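Explain my protein.
***
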Amino acid sequence: PALQALKAQGVAHPRIVGLIETCEESGSYDLLPYVDALRPRLGEVELVICLDSGAGNYDQLWLTTSLRGMASGTLKVEVLTEGIHSGDASGLVPSSFRIMRQVLD
C-alpha cells in the first residue's frame, strides 16, 4: 500500500526488490547462493532489511528488532549470603520474590 500511494501521487522512489528466503531455523544456507544467482537482476544493492531473529554467523552484521513476543532470560535476586531462620529475620530481610516482582513490573 505505501508504494501504491507513492505511485498514485507521482512521487519518485528508488527501485525496490523483495527477496524472500524461507529456510527458517536452519542457518539460511540457501540465501547467499540465491543472492549470487540473482546478482545481475538485483543490480546495485544499497539497503538490506533482514526479518529474522538471532545471528546466523559471525561474518555478517545481524540486527534483531523483534522476538515475536517472546523473551528469555535469567533473573537472580540475592538478599542474603546465608540462610536465616524466618523467626530471626522476618520483616528485616527484604523479600526476594517481592523485589523480583518489582523489577518485572
User: Anything to note?
Assistant: Residues 31-42 form the longest helix (12 residues).
